[in-house]
Each structure stands twice: as structure tokens, then as C-alpha cells.
Amino acid sequence: MTRHQFDTLPSFEGIASEKWEHHHGKDTLPMWVADMDFPAPPAVLHALEARIKRGVLGYTTISPQYKEAVAGWMSRRHGWTIDPSWLRFCPGVVVSLSVIIRACTSPGDGIVIQPPVYPPFHAVVEDNGRELVLNPLLRREDGTYGVNFAELEQQLSDEKVKMLILCHPHNPVGRVWSREELKRIAELCVRHNVLVVSDEIHADLVHEGSFIPFASLSEEAAARSLVCTSPSKTFNIAGMNSSNIIIPDAKLRAAVTAELKRISVGSISALGHDAVIAAYEQSEQWIDEALVYIRGNMEHIVSELSRHAPEIRTVLPEGTYLLWLDCRGLGMDDRDLYRFFMDKALLQLSPGSAFGAGGSGFMRLNAACTRGTAEEAARRIVSALRELRG
Ligand SMILES: Cc1ncc(COP(=O)(O)O)c(C=O)c1O
Q1: Domain boundary among 259, 282, 305
Q2: Residue 385 — pLDDT band, cuts 50, 70, 90?
Q3: Are residues 98 and 246 in the same domain?
Q4: Which of 140, 151, 212 is nearest to 182 (CA)?
């Protein structure tokens, strides 16, 4: 069998990789932190090598080429035309969320999130003294999720509620919100004068259907959206600390710009600058190939679990490289469930309870790994369950 470019695990030793350095014991496979177990795309590595060779690592600005690279990607990949002047650099999406909350709402304002959701969504609201308004997703019989629109409408009609943070595609449940769903959300937000922060960091990791940027829906939607985007998940360059906020409305853009200045968010790193350009301009084929490979991993795990571990239910996500495992059939509390995966299956996964309402009894598995790791993970779960059954 020919070896695939993604079959080889790079060495993670001694480089302070968050996922690999802290994994508990050599035998445990870390499948938690959301980055890939693959080297970054060759074009990105070449660009970084070229920069290092020059030896120039001083202060760096957001160049016109950088902005064009981001705008070009949005247009080519997602059919969304943006003016490069709408873009603001920020060193990370979570920082961006915090900046936007501080710039566009006031202490005590209500902000809606839709759990189970990426844990920092809870923290950025509460840590900035805003009130968390929970609009939990509805879990359907088939294991997929939808929005509770009736509750959302009620919540948005409350004058105190000023913002909705949308996770699109949704981490951890893997939904890529459809045009119809996005339109309903936009209509409600327009009607009740609520801003939408659309976290689109997983936008390029889509397996089924197509991704629709929230702000591309209509002029009305664009006028109230702040879109957080980043090449970090797509090209596995989270350590480059480079992300972008795209804000079509001039007033909102000015508010965010002022907040970025107030807290002295600096400019991009020299390496981040070149990496982002090489990623967006030269690595499209790489992500297309990575997506096919990751999809293969997920299909393998889902099929093995459905055949040999029916107590754990999971479905293929429309987007992201994350599998959301419904382990409630095991009848364990969250602590025992985490320990079962760590100590019996020897897999370090993210506990669902960390994702808030609706997460208890679930575990999240990161499938952006080598095929060998994916196969081993499925084997370990199946054999740990056999042992448990006795
Ligand atoms: C929805 C979502 N937003 C933001 C982030 C993190 O972004 P950053 O590392 O740029 O802060 C993640 C990482 O998993 C995520 O899933």
C-alpha cells in the first residue's frame, strides 16, 4: 500500500505542543486539543524557511498582499466578496471575541450562546462582565442538532440582549448551519436589533453541503455581523497566532479598532504574516486532500463504533474534524466517563461536560490524526468496552 502524505506522525517531543506535551503517560493517545497531527502545508513551510534564511524578523505590518490573500480566499472558497479594508488583525479568535464584546456591548448586557459549545464562549462573556444567555441546541432522535428558534426569539426580544455568538460550523456538534437556518437567525437579529458575532474558524472544514458565511446572506445581515476567521484550523497553523475579524459596517469597525488600540493589540508576527499568505494563496489543494483523509478517519471510527460499540452513538459531522460521542448509554457520571477513556481505552479526549448545557455524558474526539491513530483509537474503545461488559 502506498503511504499517504498524512500517514506519518511528526515528532512532537520537546517542542511544547499543547496536545502532545501534556499527554498523560506514553501509552495514552492525545485526541483532544483541536489541531491536526499533520505537518503544516509544504508551501507554508517553504515560506517560513525563506523568511528565516533572510534573517529578518522585525516588526511587521498587515500588508496589502496579506489582506488580498484573505479576501481572495473568501471569494474563491466561499463566494463572499469582501473589501480588504473591512479586515482587522487579531492574534486569535478567542481574543477577537473578547475585543468585540468589549467594543460593542456594555457591562450587564445579555449575550446569547448555543451550548453545548466551545468552552471559551462561556468564559469570554462572563469574564467581561456580560450576562450569559443560554439557548441550548436541540438534539434530534438521529443524533444531529438544530436551533431552538422559539426560545431564541423569546431571548432576543429581551431588550437586555445585545449580541449572539454563533459557532458556524459548530464545535462540538459539527453542524454547518444551512441557508434557511442562517436566514431565520438573521431575521430575528435584525428584528430585535441584536449583533451577530459569527465564529467561522472551522469554515473550511466542511464535508457535506456548503458553508455560507453569515455576513454573505444579505446586506442587513452584513450590517450587523462581525465575522471571526482564521487560517489556523484549516492549515494547522494555530501556533502562528494569526486571525482576522471581518467587519462590513463602518461604525462597528471603528468601535472594534478603538478597542484593539485601547488594549494595545500589536501587529502580526513576521512569521505569521508570511505563513498566512502562503496558506491562503498556495495551500488549497493541501486542505482538499486533508479533508478527504480526515473524512476517511471519521468514517472508520463511526463505522467501527456502530458495529462493535453500540452503547456509544455518534454521527459523521457536516463540518469540523471533531466527533461528538454520545456515551450516555454507558450510564457513567462525567468523572467516571473521562477516567474510562483515559485509564481503560488509553485515549485522552475532551469531556463533553466542559462544553456546557447538553454536554454531560458526551466526549469529543479529534479525528485529525494519522489513519493509524484513528484505527488504534477505534480498537481501543471497542476493546475497553468488551472488558467493561465482562
Ligand atoms: C469555535 C472555535 N473558536 C475559536 C477557537 C480558537 O481560536 P484561537 O486559537 O484563534 O483563539 C477554536 C479552537 O478550537 C474553536 O473551536
Answers
A1: 282
A2: very high
A3: yes
A4: 212
